[in-house]
Amino acid sequence: MRRLSSAVFRVAAAFLVATITVCGAASISQAQDKVRIAFLVKNLGNRFFDAVRDGGTEAAKELGNVEIIYVGPTSATAEGQIEIINSLMAQRVNAIAISANDTNALIPATKRAMDRGIKVVSFDSAIASEGRIIQVDPSETKLIGAKQVQMMADAMGGEGEFAILSAASTMTNQNNWIAAMKEELKDPKYAKMKLVTTAYGDDQSDKSYRETLGLFKSYPNLKGIISPTSIGIVAAAKAVTDQNLVGKVYVTGLGLPSEMKAAVEAGATKSFAIWNPIDLGYTTTQIAYNLIKGTVKGVPGDEVPAGRMGKVKVGPDGVVVMAEPFTFDKSNVAEYAKVF
Amino acid sequence: MDLTALARRREVVLLVLIALLLAAVGARAPVFLTPASLGDVLTDTAILLMLACGQMAVILTRGIDLSVASNMAFTGMCTALLSKYHPELPIAVTLALAPLIGFCLGAVNGALIAWVKIPPIVVTLGTLSAYRGMIFILSGGASVVTHEFSRPYLDFPRQSLFGVSALLWIALVVCAGMAVFLNFSRTGRSLYAVGGNPLAARYVGIGIERCQFLVYCLSGAIAGLCGYLWVSRYAIAFTEVAFGYELTVIAACVIGGVSVAGGIGSVSGCLLGGLFLGIIGNALPVIQVSPFWQMAISGFVILCAVIVNSRSEARKGKLILRETEPPVPAPLQVRPETPS
């Protein structure tokens, strides 16, 4: 059934792709002397990637003669991305920055692009190392795990019981983050914090909500919930508010500011985090620009100047790791809620 | 006479099963049996109960409505966008509009099935995808989140009257209305005839097409109302709201003794079937078993309920066959030709 409905999405939004490709082509012919960097995202209509584009546009303005082209398929498929890569080659862009829907499937297409002198960089979701020059990781598993435990410790005063509300029990990134959290908890400064259980809400609002109610019943002394998924964290915060447990149970984890604004204002959440998509787009653009200009080759050990982000270092396998996830709280959530 | 005795028997069996289930859960987690906790279960199940009643009317006529969850999600998104851009609209408008939108979506199903004569499973499988695709077009894939809703939109279902939430009152009214309609109205009774023996129904002058059209409208209207209630409860409207929920609704009907062959079923059975599923869903998080076991347990318990239920029917069925003179084979045709 998921297949069927995704097919309908594709048909329904095929017009959108056509429109965007046409628009992209039109704007390209006007500015031949400019450096053109294409952002190829997983799918359109995603606030996270819209914010990445905004960061790219910010860097483009600073650099002066750079033009950002923003493209993506309407549903997150590798096939859709390959088609777009081919059309970008025909348009002779200078660089393509990709958040890949498949680690390996895009490699033949991006190799062809690189043969023609187009600099290929991946960000967020990586392409395997032979299919790109540099991968920009918004953060890394260890930092993401550590950050969430720190936020939980801040919210609950460093002691008491807390639980994790994850998505599905089979999701690789969720399980890696949870493992990183458990690693961080071994630090003696968290000795008084006890992780009581991990519940799974399957990234569905109703199941996450129900699981949260179950946690309240099973652990009456519960003081916190970490939910490293944007659907789970919203449902958990709503359950805390509905059950009048604000001030008693705190929710933290990974979420989008626009979706978490109400929870922060209600007091159910003190702070939460997500990698900053604006910085991600900004840094990626800076790196792509330097590759085009030839100031760096993009080999491990290189230091790439990246404007307001300072110098970023290329690590083993051409991976650039940015920083720990960006934290949102009462002071900045309203501002970022307008962005993503 | 025989029929009512049979129905009563099935419901008694289900009631005993529910009591056993509650006792088993209570033995492991006594906190589950507190009044507040049971109240949570009722509130959580209210939407399922309403949807099951609507679905039952459809199944009575040998049909099936697979589009309920998509209908819910679409109507939910409509009301959410309305609340976002016109927060000044009184809640009564939302309450009137939600069933109306759902009614229209249901009418499309009904018209295609009753007059264009396409099998229900084909029509509603198509609209399942179509309605969900429409959400994507309507919202551009973006979500409507907590702080974008108007206060009354979110608060109304949680308001309490005589200590019972508005959500439960609505469910009560819908289910009671459905019971009165099916048991005491001429049209309601004729639905049983249409499903039980379409040929006979036509000979006694029942408008089969009219009945079919009506049940899909009814199911659609209920789904529409539930769409608003669902979005309001979880305070988020996005393209994947209630994805796959139609199966839970149909399961509630089947457990409640509604025959998928049509003509058999009662509102009380449906309510018990829905409650059974609701109790399982809410109990699993508190009995503290591994999430890997939870799915298996839930499936096993449901299977047990259906087996016990169908056994009681089988025994009763044989008795009828012995008492009637020549056993008349049930007509195999789903939709007989119009007698000329």
TrEMBL record, chain A:
The keyword Kinase does not apply. The keyword Signal applies. Residues 1-31 form the signal peptide. Keywords: Signal. GO terms for biological process: rhamnose transmembrane transport. It is found in: Periplasm. NCBIfam families: RhaS. This is Sugar ABC transporter substrate-binding protein.
TrEMBL record, chain B:
It is found in: Cell membrane. One of its GO terms (molecular function) is transmembrane transporter activity. Signal peptide: none annotated. The chain crosses the membrane at residues 91-114, 121-141, 161-182, 213-231, 243-262, 269-287, 293-310. Keywords: Cell inner membrane, Cell membrane, Membrane, Transmembrane, Transmembrane helix, Transport. InterPro entries: ABC_transp_permease. CDD domains: TM_PBP1_transp_AraH_like. It is a multi-pass membrane protein. GO terms for cellular component: plasma membrane. Part of the ABC transporter complex LsrABCD involved in autoinducer 2 (AI-2) import. Probably responsible for the translocation of the substrate across the membrane. This is Autoinducer 2 import system permease protein LsrC. The lineage of its organism: Bacteria, Pseudomonadati, Pseudomonadota, Alphaproteobacteria, Rhodospirillales.
